[in-house]
């Protein structure tokens, strides 16, 4: 068989995957909960929520690092996902030998460390004094915590990745963008393996306040597990969440030659910027539609070859309407019959990690022949005519998946995946 696609590029295989969400650690626990229609969204107990409009989130509270701040938790989540993925691939955990692409949230000092830094600074109101204080040996941890590349550097040291690691932040599309960078590096012949990770442990009080000011979060706090309801008429916002996912990518020829188990083929990736507004999408949905079309073109696939769509499906009034419009523009009347479901109905929105988490779930959908449901679909929106796989999983033959990631700032990235060719 051919190890190249119709454009003459190496076919890119996935040989290892790892995932952590509020549903649990590892693919097995996550898949059981996901296909069982269980929610990981709960009332927040980690920090005070007095006077906050939103008091729910999909937190990863079963790790000790959850009490140590966003940076420590993001690193821990990335490590857990990476170790599961590399272990499954059969490659070395300490000498991976390929580049690392990390999608991570913009880094800030946790508040407890900010206050400690202010207390130690000679002139607490002067930023130069704060930086100088942070650079001192006794406070080196504060300085490192505030560096955007710090998490990726530590991962690179631990797993022996090759070259300088790349840290990126393209909002809610970040996880998909990390995968895209790995795919493209392999296609260009720059490496024979790549590690793509999306990780986000930044569900903090400050994040809740910021997204609340944008009117982006659900305020349906009374029943947390029912708050995220993509494509429903009574949806009122997304639910902030934490999580991580990692994929090991390598040329199909290399994977087969070393006897690795091939989990899926990354057929295509596409991106399209939207400059309409900092948080709102262009009303006609054309940039999102453009990203979908670009991914299909990159995969060399026609629209009718898509068997299932893993929706961005955030549960905000704006996004769900735009996603329906953009997909209907691409797929026409067929969009009424293509199954499309949103994992965010159960895990919430993991922000920087979302594209990677949903890529893992998309591949598991193909491998297991089961489509996870969109839960909380009790009040359909008549303006959004989609087969959302409502409330209950569905057994189905799924040879191909389109996974959408549409981010704030107009950053849209779509991935096309397929089962291993015979």
Automatic annotation (TrEMBL):
InterPro entries: Beta-ketoacyl_synthase (IPR000794), Ketoacyl_synth_AS (IPR018201), Ketoacyl_synth_C (IPR014031), Ketoacyl_synth_N (IPR014030), PKS_Beta-ketoAc_synthase_dom (IPR020841), Thiolase-like (IPR016039). Pathway: Lipid metabolism; fatty acid biosynthesis. Its EC number is 2.3.1.179. One of its GO terms (biological process) is fatty acid biosynthetic process. It is an enzyme of class 2 (transferase). GO terms for molecular function: 3-oxoacyl-[acyl-carrier-protein] synthase activity. The keyword Acetylation does not apply. The keyword RNA-binding does not apply. Residues 9-419 form the Ketosynthase family 3 (KS3) domain. GO terms for cellular component: cytosol. Keywords: Acyltransferase, Transferase. Belongs to the thiolase-like superfamily. Beta-ketoacyl-ACP synthases family. This is Beta-ketoacyl-ACP synthase. It comes from Chelativorans petroleitrophicus.
């Amino acid at each position: 068989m051919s190890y190249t696609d119709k454009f003459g590029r190496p076919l890119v295989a996935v040989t290892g995957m790892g995932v952590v969400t509020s549903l649990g650690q590892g693919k097995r626990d996550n898949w059981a909960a996901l296909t069982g229609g269980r929610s990981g969204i709960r009332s927040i107990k980690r920090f005070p929520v007095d006077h906050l409009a939103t008091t729910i989130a999909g937190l990863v509270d079963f790790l000790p690092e959850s009490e140590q701040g966003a940076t420590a938790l993001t690193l821990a989540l990335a490590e857990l996902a990476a170790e599961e993925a590399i272990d499954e691939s059969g490659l070395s955990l300490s000498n991976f030998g390929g580049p690392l692409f990390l999608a991570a949230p913009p880094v800030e000092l946790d508040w407890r460390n900010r206050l400690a830094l202010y207390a130690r600074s000679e002139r607490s109101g002067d930023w130069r004094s704060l930086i100088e204080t942070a650079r001192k040996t006794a406070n080196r941890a504060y300085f490192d915590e505030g560096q955007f590349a710090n998490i990726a550097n530590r991962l690179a040291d631990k797993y022996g990745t090759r070259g300088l690691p790349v840290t990126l932040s393209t909002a809610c599309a970040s996880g998909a963008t990390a995968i895209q960078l790995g795919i493209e590096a392999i296609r260009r012949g720059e490496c024979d393996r790549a590690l793509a990770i999306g990780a986000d442990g930044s569900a903090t009080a400050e994040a809740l306040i910021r997204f609340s000011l944008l009117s982006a979060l659900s305020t349906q706090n009374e029943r947390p597990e029912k708050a995220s309801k993509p494509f429903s008429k009574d949806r009122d916002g997304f639910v902030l969440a934490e999580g991580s996912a990692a994929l090991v990518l390598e040329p199909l020829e290399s994977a087969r030659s070393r006897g690795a188990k091939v989990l899926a083929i990354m057929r295509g990736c596409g991106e399209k910027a939207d400059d309409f507004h900092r948080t709102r999408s262009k009303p006609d949905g054309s940039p999102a539609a453009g990203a979908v079309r670009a991914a299909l073109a990159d995969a060399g696939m026609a629209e009718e070859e898509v068997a299932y769509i893993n929706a961005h499906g955030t549960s905000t009034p704006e996004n769900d309407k735009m996603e329906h419009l953009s997909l209907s523009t691409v797929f026409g009347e067929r969009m009424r019959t293509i199954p499309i479901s949103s994992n965010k109905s159960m895990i919430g929105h993991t922000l920087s990690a979302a594209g990677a988490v949903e890529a893992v779930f998309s591949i598991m959908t193909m491998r297991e022949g089961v489509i996870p449901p969109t839960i909380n679909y009790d009040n359909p929106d008549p303006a959004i005519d989609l087969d959302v796989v409502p409330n209950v999983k569905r057994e189905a033959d799924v040879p191909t998946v389109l996974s959408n990631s549409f981010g704030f700032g107009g950053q849209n990235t779509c991935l096309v995946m397929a089962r291993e060719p015979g």
